[in-house]
Protein 1
Amino acid sequence: MKRTVVSLAVLAGLALSLTGCSDATKPAAASPTTTTTEPAVTPSGALGGYQPVSDVAQHARMSLDVCEINRLLDARPVDFAGVAAVYRHGRFSDESEGVKRTLGKFAGESRQSEDTLGRYERYLSAGWLNAFIGDAIEGVGAFAGASEAVRREAVRIGVRDQIMVAWALHELDAAIEKAGKGSFTKKSGAPHNWDEVWAYYHGEKPECSPFATAQRSEVEFGVGTLITRRLQLFSKDGLKALVGKNALAARTARDQIVRDITITYVQSAILAASKIDAALAQGKADEARVAQAEGLAYYRVIEPLIAKANTTSAKAVAGVFDLATKPAVGSAAKVAAAFSTTYGPLGIAPADVGELGGAGSAAEAPTADDAEAPDDEAEDGE
């Protein structure tokens, strides 16, 4: 009989096959935590000098919906039915295949658990965005019996400034939250949400975005391009911090952006209040009423932030723009005085706000073609 000789190596291999692979022979891919490869992403094009690191092209197209609503608002008579259709069903921005991203959907969603917008919801009540804009479109609630001109300006500012700024604030907090959890991938982590901030704030068509409001206001108050320049600079700084996985630096940039957004709407509210005074001085009660509605629409963009700094002052400004009251002489002085008490807590210097009618004028306000100009100055500051 032949004797079969089995080597020790073969026996060892047989034993491993029966008891399972040893750590030494396990394939490296068995541990998913060892990979550092990010999902592939093709960034969308630059937006006003800001270069995203992710794809936010469709998000930026929400400004096209705002442009379309502006076109419908400029019709005589106003096509409020058409406005409602774009507001509720969307037009130009694809959220997913066959699904449009809509202003109305965002305006109607609860943000109770969020940092910044949670504060807004607690102060202005749930559904605060949709209630204002939806009521203005339909001519009900605070806008029952309001003139077409009043409703038109309330919708125009409500859509462009209230919704789009709220959307930007939402994405700022989402980026900071993801950074806190260590989610830094460019495709869907904190940098992507940060890109969305500028996509909503500046958009594909900056003339129909909050960026245009900031451009106009900073010129009206004689501060040149101070606010838009800083907003671009801090947006770039925040993105750089998140790509570098520096959550603390990103949070600092977020706070600076919120401050400069606040300045824009302090300026806008004071400007609206001055329009009330000018219209009343000329005996134009209807124009004063439109200016009051403008002031209310602008003020709501920052009202909870003002209330956090000084509740009494916040209520004083709200009283000036309350549509349940008649526009009153001295509105600009009252609004400016109330805001001034909040500057310290908000980290705002009077020079940041400037003075209405200061160096510069409405005639010098930048046009849509000038939308990229502040970025050159921002680069100089880096």
Protein 2
Amino acid sequence: MDSGQERLTHAQLRTPRAAAVAGILFSVLLFVTFALVRISLPGDPFEPGTWLDNSLLYVTLAMHLVPFAGVAFLWFMGVLRDRLGEREDRFFSTVFLGCGFLLLAMLFSAAAVVGAIIIAFQASHEALEHSAIFHFGRGLAYGMMNIYLLKTASAFMITTSTIALYTHLTPRWLAIGGYVIAVVLLIDYLGWSLMLFPFWILLVSLSILWEMQAASGRAG
């Protein structure tokens, strides 16, 4: 085998592991982002905007973490499709990709709206605070994050768990746990319940890494 083929084989072996690590990175970044938002922004969409008068450091940091989390999530979806290989079903693959892209769209859009509110407040806080524009933006971000992102994450987990259950992509208990968490997110919103989504992604990524290391040990 020449050096070019060796480099190609080495890249093929490293790509899934890098993507699985990206899944862990996504989980950590999203968990931190949600935590910073929760402790900084009131859960009430009708709140008059007093949080803007406080330090915006945590909110600003959370908005800057979102793009990195989004890129890591794309890598995570890539490793799942890579591990499926020829077992991939076109129907579930389409739903899987659609839910993933919608989730990122909602996450990025909500972050952009919150960022726009912060910039507008810093430019003219007297005109923005208690204005209709502020309440529109606040309500838009609230709906994207707490309704559409929440439901899309549930759909993503249901689809991924179904694929994992029939293809043995993850342990059976992890796929069933995905169904349970998805149902919780669908029927109720508990303030911090959205944290369950990155936690489940973290478990899936760790499971993939564990399986890959075990396979490497058997091959060695």
Protein 3
Amino acid sequence: MQPFRERPRRYLWVVATAIAIYGLVSYLILPATWSRIEHEPGLSKRVMVTSTAQGIPGDAINIGLIGSREDVISAFHAAGWYPADPITLKTSLEIIGSVVFDRSYKAAPVSPLYFDGRREDLAFEKPAGTSADRRQHVRLWMILQNGVDGDPVWLGSASFDSGVTLSRDTGQVTHKISPNIDEERDRLIKGLDRSQTVLSISQMMGVGPTLNGRNGEGDRYYTDGEIWMARLARHGQKAVTPAKYLPVPPLIQMKDKMFSLASVT
């Protein structure tokens, strides 16, 4: 039988070992499996949600692009997207006619949203049918004039217009978005990659996992909360190989997979 006076030493050793294991797991192993390389640290500490002119939270930021304005325009042109027309009386009547009479309007305007204190710098769309009621669309803001490598950095909100409805907040006629904004984010970035305009793709933290988000029109959306960042080829040149996917920490990969399964149940 172990002497009574040796038991406190044994308990102290067990406690010390437990504390050491806790410190190792909590402060070294788990942070390492969660942490990601912030390729553009100048984008950190931002609330990754747009807003309407009335200050109502809008679409989530879910894509990023690295390249000049010309690089962005060339990439979307190569992928079959159209720059959205500005909102005027003429274009407003044209988009109404497109929806009512099922007429083509490939450059229909998009309603303005605000991020970083201003409305979007660029907006593109890709029709998903004849009329302008169903379309892929994205709004883009140049956030950094010079990123880590000296190139401009853009953030954007991509979603899919699935029809026309009335705004829950204002009662105005507007588009209704499909709730799975991750699907549209993935489709946009992969479409740019297929057009040979993307050099690499990375991931950064966005709005965070959201199952019941609402945009400025009251439409529900859900997302794993990640932003996909695409580094674009310069000056409209073609990438010679498919884009390189930069590593994502294991626990974030697991989180994204679990969220994807949860969002469809």
Protein 4
Amino acid sequence: MRQDTLPRRLVRRWLYPVSWAWILIGLALFLRMEVDERPAWILITLPLVILYLVLEIVLPLDRRWSMSWRNLPPDIVYIVLAAATIGLVSAGLAMASITISGEAQGPARDWPLWLQVPVLMLVFEFMNYWLHRAMHELGGRFGRLLWHIHAAHHLPRGLYLLMHAVSHPLNAIIIQGLAIILPIWIMGYGPEAVLIFLVVNAFHGIISHFNVDLRMGRANYLFVGPELHRYHHSAEVSEAKNYGAVLSVWDQLFGTFVYRPANYPKELGTDPETGMPEYRRIFTVLALPFHRG
């Protein structure tokens, strides 16, 4: 049994609020300096990624879900072909969204920052929620196509930090294009609001795949973290819900909220009976959306 050591207790209780403190301080400094927002997005999140990688190696929640030496070679290939591509696409689209926000002239352009940020978050989450849910639950040929685009992210039997980037390139284009770029262009949010959104979005995207016992308590009723997102990756379809990326509010409103404090799924990945290819068959997985039938 895993020992409940002092480092684990500190991480469980304090890592989330301390991370938020780092984000808020970083955002305040960059917004006050009035510098280009694009490098700020990277500079604020990169130190957290490095810290989390170390903690995930030293204090894993479940070693079954960790990256291992046995799985490292196929993981590297997958990351190079899929995750690295997604990272570039995501970063490119994220920076493009900041650029677009500096030129867009929409109804939100003259709103105060305190109003732009929550509206941007809620609109993104609403669109992301239904796109994500459709990828899992929509039937017919179109639903199957969406699932085949999204399935690469669910095939691994583990859940670790770098898995946040493991996905099909088409998945990033759909989510970021329809849920981020298009609303920013239509609404005309300012660069400051977009920077805040992108940093918070990146932060929660990272920790939601964190294989460390980080607990958020009542914050789970507002934000999506590892306690909620682990169930999204459950191999048991009935509990594989929680479609939100950053906010859990739409899951609560539409009946797909699964929160079981101090517990986690027995198995992760997809049900073997679905006939999906193994995670290591990289080219087969990437070709799934192009199969007929």
